Amino acid sequence: MTYDWDFYDMTKSVQYRPSAGAFSTARDQNRSFWLNGQVDSGSSIQTTNLESSTSIFQPGLIVINHDDQTARNISTDALVGKTPRTRGRTQWCVGLGTNGILLLIGGNHKSISDTVDRGVGDLVPMDRVHVFDVSSIYDERVSTGGTWYEQPVTGDIPERRVDFCVMKASAADLSSFNM
């Protein structure tokens, strides 16, 4: 069995393709999500002219629709303000809410005006998880940024970190999740 690569032109929604963002796929909705990230000299062919010490953290949640091959970049100001995240993780949870939720944990963040110290920022505490209500991007009454919530975490909470693994275990009835 062989597969062909597909290419979606996202440049109307995202000028430069960021790296180091958090991502998840909602297969039940044919959607993928890319949160924040950074642009540096290795992010794409268009950014190779940036100095090696330059790193620009990018705001926004890119929502990719696999059905019509479009992308939308929605605001994450309500979540991160002017300090986008990189190198954190998201986890997709189907069955919660109308269209599922996206969980965000960890990573680092820094001001979008800080372009030096490539990839460096302040580590995000792991004692809280941010929850994105995916149905909010379909609701015309909600602002373009969707709806984010913050939830405290219980149990054995890891130290602040970046580039970590995260897995989710669901109860059979999808009533609870462990990460």
Taken in chain order, the helices and strands follow as: EEEEEEHEEEEEEEEE
User: Pairing-aware structural class of the strands and helices?
Assistant: mainly beta
Model regions low in confidence, pLDDT < 50 over at least 5 residues: none
Mean pLDDT: 84
Q: Measured on Cα atoms, how large is the radius of gyration?
A: 17 Å
Count of helical regions: 1
What does this structure look like?
By secondary structure, the protein is mostly beta strands. The protein has one helix and 15 strands, in the order ββββββαβββββββββ. It has one helix spanning 77-80; strands spanning 22-26, 31-35, 38-40, 55-57, 61-65, 70-74, 85-86, 89-93, 101-105, 108-109, 122-123, 128-133, 147-152, 169-170, 177-178. Strands 1-2-5-6 form a four-stranded antiparallel sheet, with no helix packed on it. β8 and β9 form a beta hairpin. It is globular. It starts with 21 loop residues before the first strand and ends with a strand.
Short structural summary:
The protein has 179 residues and is mainly beta.
Question: What's the structural blueprint in terms of helices and strands?
Answer:
Elements: E1 22-26, E2 31-35, E3 38-40, E4 55-57, E5 61-65, E6 70-74, H1 77-80, E7 85-86, E8 89-93, E9 101-105, E10 108-109, E11 122-123, E12 128-133, E13 147-152, E14 169-170, E15 177-178
Antiparallel strand pairs: 1-2, 2-5, 3-4, 5-6, 7-10, 8-9, 9-12, 10-11, 12-13, 14-15
